[in-house]
Amino acid sequence: MLFLLSGCATIIRDSNQAVPIQANIDDVNIEIKNSKGSIVYKGRTPTTVWLKTSEGGYFKPEKYYIKASKHGYTTQYTIIDWHVSLWYWLGNLVFGGLIGWFIVDPLTGDMYYLDDIATINMSLSH
Question: What is the span of the domain harbouring residue 34?
Fold first, then answer.
């Protein structure tokens, strides 16, 4: 019964995801902010960070903004964006149905996933 009341993305996915962050040079300072502007990570590349895929509300995916800096290089900005899982679409079509589409997966945020990797291309200052 519990399986029938679950959303498919919730069964397959987790609401946290490891995202590797790399740059074309080593030891770049990075600061990651969530969609509300709160700093969720400060560190250096290369690294892997665990990020939430949802900001915790109904149909509220999370997006992250990276500021990358290093002395002698131009500050760069990039985004870790969200996407909707194929498990959400196809899994709920077969198993979860309307409960999975409109209640379970949107509430848990498990229907979303983030970019698989974030790559920063630093360039020398002029």
Answer: 8-120
